[in-house]
Specification:
The chain is an alpha+beta fold and 405 residues long. 32% of the residues lie in helices and 24% in strands. Strand 14 (310-317) and strand 15 form a beta hairpin.
């Protein structure tokens, strides 16, 4: 592994068109799970100028039964969609929560998928199967207190602060759509300097030039200075703030958005492999989501326990099959014990229930309406807060230490 290099990660704000789509899809997941903890949801969202379109398949008691929507269900879905757009802050001519056109093409789940995923009847040996085949990766490193890659962690935090200031009125010139990018120079594998910051943010009219433009740029630099460690910043740090000039037309009015198009932003900013599956819009029987969460949980606990400073974990599943096909641990030469011993330790921890889809959901408590909050500023590196972000807990440290003693 190279010890001296430049590395870059990007983030996008809650108002980015793809993230608008992700948040709508996850708001729908939360709605259905609030009605039925065993709901099955695969919801895709497309956003464009003054339009939101849903598509996908569901199964949910109290909402969609016997091939029909229950009374009031369609109206509630539309309310959730419009409320999500309103909460993000879109009240613009080209995309307004109250006046946009909404279409819903959700329908019932395929019986052929359901038969593979459902557990058998009482007395049957069939456990709940994975909702699809696939490979999932989890990652953790000690570059930040959140045990996340520093380039991505700082990119997220810049946009989160800007969104907070926009919502509070502290930065009234900001509009919802924004992107960030952080480049760090690494020496001996550790962040040593920030060489470049890129921030492109939608703004109110006039904030692209003159005193107003200078105010916006000074604001962004102040945010960066408050969030990045002082030792990483210097006069040599290059800032590109709205480098194209004006950015008044943004969000779905400026570019169409689709669920699941920001999977690297959602995970590790390119610092770790990705299995290819998106998260948003999927209930937790889909291992694209739940297995990605458990692998992050395992990798974070391994690093938190001091068994490595960097850890990648892979799981693989087949649709309709409960047991994972493989478990792979790579501590990238930083491990204090052999990687195969860590794999054996994970398999030996009974509370993980063999890393089956049902076991993952039970251990992390995933059958709850907890997902809309994941759909902007990253699914990982967030603070475990009650039912939210349970995969960020480090409560497996003692079990790992006991298994590896």
């Amino acid at each position: 592994m190279r010890q001296s290099y430049l590395f870059t990660s990007e983030s996008v704000s809650e108002g980015h068109p793809d993230k608008v789509s992700d948040q709508i899809s996850d708001a729908i997941v939360d709605l259905f799970l609030s009605k039925d903890p065993e709901a099955r949801v695969a919801c895709e969202t497309m956003t464009t100028t003054q339009r939101v379109v849903l598509a996908g398949e569901i199964r949910c008691k109290g909402v969609y039964e016997n091939g029909e929507w229950t009374p009031g269900a369609l109206e509630e879905i539309e309310q959730v969609v419009r409320g999500t757009v309103r909460d993000i802050g879109y009240e613009q001519e080209g995309f307004h929560w109250e006046t946009l056109s909404f279409e819903n093409f959700l329908h019932g789940q395929s019986a052929h998928i359901a038969q593979g995923v459902d557990a058998g009847e009482a007395g049957s040996n069939k456990d709940e199967g994975a909702g699809d085949q696939g490979i999932m990766f989890g990652y953790a490193c000690n570059e930040t207190p959140d045990l996340m890659p520093a380039t991505l962690d700082y990119s997220h935090k810049i946009l989160q602060r800007m969104a907070d200031d926009r919502h509070s009125g502290a930065a009234p010139f900001l509009e919802p759509d924004a992107k960030s990018q952080v480049t760090l120079r690494f020496e001996n594998g550790k962040p040593a300097a920030c060489t470049a910051i890129v921030v492109s943010t939608q703004h109110a009219p006039g904030y692209d030039q003159g005193d107003k433009g200078a105010e916006l740029k000074a604001y962004v630099k102040r945010v960066v200075a408050e969030l990045l460690p002082a030792e990483l910043l210097s006069d040599a740090t290059v800032y590109h703030i709205n480098p194209t000039g004006s950015f008044e037309i943004g969000g779905p009015d400026g570019d169409a958005g689709l669920t699941g198009r920001k999977i690297i932003v959602d995970t590790y900013g390119g610092a770790a492999p990705h299995g290819g599956g998106a998260f948003s819009g999927k209930d937790p029987t889909k291992v694209d989501r739940s297995a990605a969460y458990i692998t992050r949980y395992l990798a974070k606990n391994i690093v938190a326990a001091g068994f490595a400073t960097r850890c990648t974990i892979q799981l693989a599943y087949a649709i309709g099959v409960s047991e994972p096909l493989s478990l792979y641990v790579d501590t990238h030469g930083t491990g204090t014990v052999p990687d195969d011993r860590i794999e054996d330790a994970i398999r030996s921890i009974g509370k993980l229930r063999g890393l089956t889809p049902r076991g993952i959901r039970l251990h992390l408590g995933l059958n709850k309406p907890i997902y809309r909050r994941t759909a902007a500023y990253g699914h990982f590196g967030r603070k475990a807060d009650g039912d939210f972000f349970p995969w960020e807990r480090t409560d497996l440290v003692d079990d790992l230490k006991a298994a590896l003693a």
